[in-house]
Design brief:
With about 650 residues, this protein is of the alpha/beta class. The chain folds into 2 domains: about 1-10 and about 30-465, Up-down Bundle (Amino acid/polyamine transporter I); about 480-644, no CATH class. The chain is built from 24 helices and 9 strands.
């Protein structure tokens, strides 16, 4: 027999967001509420780029004594082109079409590409894992550069603040990471309004200065940017790497699509955020043209003297919000990676009783905090950090375009030639940005590459080790149906109640079941073997949560289906199974879990260093009781030593 379920509401993605049903635009709170929410969460990172993007682009020109009207206009023209081509055309128009049942993000795109190919291809897997690894590098740099660039505005209020920039930055960052475990639901309601005030402020400040040098409007002519690149040679290429800072954070448009919907994110960008950014960059350019001495920090010098401190405070709030969005995004990505089997199971804490998507992962939070503080202490200024920023983002863009090619060709049904032409048009620009950013490797660009490389090695080691271990376990185990036949002949002692065994391989007898028979020499009157399966989709519909198969009069096998953005809660699934007719009483049920102690093996297929890393990773994994939300007083753990 096979039964299907009716489970509870599907949990969502990361931290502070509104969650969704499959593929539909969100209506909760109305369109205006969703637009305001997206402004607060989606656009924090890209919205605070004006604090340093143009400043860094012009700093190279000052170094080479090449700051002229044409060079300023050319740099802003490149910056406008980056915003319109990369953000508006690529992401807003095309990438956001590639939703995985309403959800976005690099791992969602990887799952969508694999579905489109009809199998789990290694190419799509490596592209997705590479993008996720590079995001890990970016997630550490973003809070550091964002908050520090805002606090540096205090130096313009008075030079006496200079020595306090670093301590204040560290204090804000430590506080930000400390509050994560308490949840951010209460303050999240303020994100949208604060960011709206920030965008209105920077837009108005920029517009006020444009009349001082109206020739800056020539920046809308893309030929100005191309001329600058051609005539300035090597310097033009260096500036191009800094121009790209204007679009860091663009992945959030796609990653947060499931929380706010495609429509609200597009409306917020085209109707509000993009105009505010363009006005601000044009205003900064006009200020530099009319007062070249302002080139040191054109963003804060847009404000009149009396408005400088309020602008610093507002910018600090905005950059803190940007950092918060990146942190919650990292939690969401980590949970997806856990569900997809890319990293060990980590304990996921839900920080809200009403919003399932508000999660906190302690180990990820601690790793991010340590990384951010090390960067702040090592680089000491946002200008130095800018050299480390950008490579991870450009790398992620190249990988997402490659995945988008697969989706356009295989899922959307575009002809191969059209798909290649489509991807190539973006890759040409993105490779130019990537090459320009690679020039910053020796000045700090190695940091995100090293961080991304470490994350990639961890994910590769975990997936490889887990696969080898699963193959070894399968070889050494007894097929389930054979065991049932053997038990019907040997007739072991039966005890009342239900025994639940969790397994990753439903075709063979769980190790915990074999240990229970071997050592306790008893079998419960009813045995349920559960396999939790993660699908290549964000969420699984409640009516497809489980399948139950009757193997014999007293043996049942259930497969629980979860999306990669859901938390697998076994008791909730069992309650749904009981409603569907499966006899089950939690008070007479025991959960038998196998706790494996992994040891290195001289005959392992992996090199020694990878063996050691895999064993170390297994020790970091959360136990199954916590991960699957199983009542601890109903759990019996049976240990075993296994070599890889």
């Amino acid at each position: 027999m096979t039964q299907r379920s009716d489970a509870g509401p599907a949990p969502g993605g990361d931290g502070t967001h509104v969650h969704a049903h499959h593929g539909s635009e969100r209506t909760r709170g109305g369109l205006v509420g969703l637009i305001i929410g997206s402004i607060g969460v989606v656009y924090g990172d890209i919205g605070t780029s004006p604090l340093y993007a143009l400043r860094e682009s012009l700093a190279h020109q000052v170094e080479h004594d090449a700051l002229t009207e044409e060079s300023v206009v050319g740099a802003i023209s490149l910056l406008i082109f980056a915003l319109i081509f990369t953000v508006t055309i690529k992401y807003v128009i095309f990438v956001m079409r590639a939703d995985n049942r309403g959800e976005g993000g690099i791992l969602s795109l990887m799952a969508l590409a694999q579905t489109a190919m009809g199998r789990r291809t290694r190419v799509a897997f490596l592209l997705g894992v590479g993008g996720a690894a590079l995001f890990a590098g970016e997630a550490i740099i973003t809070p550091a550069i964002s908050v520090m660039s805002a606090i540096e505005g205090l130096e313009l209020v008075t030079h006496r603040f200079s020595e306090f920039v670093l301590p204040i930055t560290i204090f804000i960052l430590v506080t930000l990471f400390w509050v994560q475990s308490h949840g951010t639901a209460r303050v999240a309601a303020l994100f949208g309004p604060i960011m709206i005030v920030f965008f209105l402020t920077i837009g108005v400040l920029g517009a006020m200065h444009i009349p001082e040098a109206p020739q800056v409007l020539r920046s809308f002519d893309p030929r100005q940017g191309m001329t600058f690149l051609v005539t300035h040679g090597w310097l033009g290429f260096v500036v191009l790497g800094s121009v790209f800072l204007a679009v860091t954070g663009v992945e959030a448009l796609y990653a947060d699509m499931g929380h706010f919907g495609r429509g609200p994110i597009r409306a917020a960008w085209l109707g509000f955020v993009l105009p505010a950014l363009l006005l601000n960059y044009l205003g900064q350019g006009a200020l530099v043209l009319s007062r070249p001495e302002a080139v040191g920090n054109p963003f804060f010098l847009l404000a009149p003297e009396w408005g400088l401190l309020p602008l610093v405070i507002l910018s600090t709030l905005a950059t803190t919000i940007a950092a918060q969005a990146v942190i919650t995004g990292a939690f969401s990505l980590a949970r997806q990676a856990i569900q997809l089997g890319l990293i060990p199971r980590l304990e996921v804490t839900h920080t809200s009783a009403s919003q399932e998507g508000q999660i906190y992962i302690g180990r990820i939070n601690r790793l991010l905090l340590i990384g951010v503080l090390l960067l702040v202490i090592a680089f000491k200024s946002s200008s130095a950090l800018a050299s480390a920023y950008g490579i991870a983002v450009t790398g992620t863009m190249v990988l997402s375009t490659s995945l988008l090619f697969i989706v356009a060709w295989r899922k959307w049904g575009w002809p191969l030639f059209v798909s290649i032409l489509f991807a190539a048009s973006f890759l040409v620009v993105e490779f130019a940005f990537l090459t320009a950013n690679l020039m910053k490797v020796k000045d700090g660009g190695w940091v995100p590459l090293a961080l991304g490389g470490c994350a990639m090695i961890v994910m590769w080691t975990w997936t490889r080790g887990t696969r080898l271990l699963a193959e070894k376990t399968h070889r050494d185990s007894i097929p389930m149906m054979e065991l049932i036949a053997m038990l019907q002949k040997s007739k072991p002692t039966r005890v009342p109640g239900t025994a639940v065994f969790l397994t990753s391989d439903p075709d063979v007898a769980p190790t915990a079941l074999m240990h229970n028979l071997k050592h306790n020499k008893v079998l419960h009157e009813r045995v349920l073997v559960i396999c939790v399966k993660t699908e290549d989709r964000p969420r699984v519909a409640p009516d497809k949560r489980f399948e139950i198969e009757k193997l014999s009069d007293d043996f049942y096998r259930a497969t629980l289906h979860y999306g990669f953005m859901e938390s697998p809660r076994v008791p909730a699934a069992l309650a749904a199974m009981r409603k569907a007719g499966f006899k089950y009483d939690i008070m007479t049920t025991s959960f038998f879990l196998g706790r494996r102690s992994i040891k290195e093996s001289p005959s392992s297929e992996m090199p020694v260093w990878q063996d050691k890393l895999y064993v170390a990773l297994t020790r970091q994994a959360a136990n199954a009781t916590d991960f699957f939300s199983i009542p601890s007083d109903r759990v019996v753990e049976l240990g075993a030593q296994v070599t890889i």
